[in-house]
Amino acid sequence: MSMQMEEKKQVDLNTLLNAIKSLTLEEVKTFTDRLQNELGISSDNFISSREMLNESSSLKESEEIDEKTEFDVILEEVPSSSRITVIKVIRSITNSGLKEAKEFIEALPKTVKEGISKEEAESVKAQLEQSGAKVILK
């Protein structure tokens, strides 16, 4: 294609905008209908920038809500076959004596640690689960 033909195919956007501004409402309706039919587009395909901002701020808020920084480790159940092992783990986690650890596992569910980081909570949970206890994080 020669340079002259390419220049003719390019449309001056200002000229196009001025031409659209001069249309009547009926002509604009006909024009938009043709655009939708010939290009396969519709206004339903587009989201306004305000709607996009609202959606992104809603997502950020929900992410902030979902991100907990402090966790509680709750001991829910200790099978009788695992009592001694769990008592040992409770003693090491809570720095308590044998009597306190034994009393601790007899009144379940009970919070082992509270307000700790996610990493620490998962570590405590893993130790307790390895010893046979049923544990949840909140």
From TrEMBL:
Tell me where it resides.
Plastid, Chloroplast
Please report a single Pfam family linked to this protein.
Ribosomal_L12
Domain Large ribosomal subunit protein bL12 C-terminal, chain residue ranges per copy: 71-138
Q: Which GO terms describe its molecular function?
A: mRNA binding; structural constituent of ribosome
Recorded GO cellular component terms are:
chloroplast; ribonucleoprotein complex; ribosome
Q: Does the keyword Ribonucleoprotein apply?
A: yes
Major place of localization? plastid
Which Gene Ontology BP terms does the record give?
A: translation
Q: Which InterPro entries does the UniProt record give?
A: Ribosomal_bL12, Ribosomal_bL12_C, Ribosomal_bL12_C/ClpS-like, Ribosomal_bL12_oligo_N_sf
Q: Does the keyword Aminoacyl-tRNA synthetase apply?
A: no
Which keywords does this chain's UniProt record carry? Chloroplast, Plastid, Ribonucleoprotein, Ribosomal protein
Describe the subunit structure.
Answer: Homodimer. Part of the ribosomal stalk of the 50S ribosomal subunit. Forms a multimeric L10(L12)X complex, where L10 forms an elongated spine to which 2 to 4 L12 dimers bind in a sequential fashion. Binds GTP-bound translation factors.
> What does this protein do, in the record's words?
Forms part of the ribosomal stalk which helps the ribosome interact with GTP-bound translation factors. Is thus essential for accurate translation.
Family as reported in the entry's similarity comment: Belongs to the bacterial ribosomal protein bL12 family.
Q: What is this protein called?
A: Large ribosomal subunit protein bL12c
Which species is listed as the source? Nitellopsis obtusa
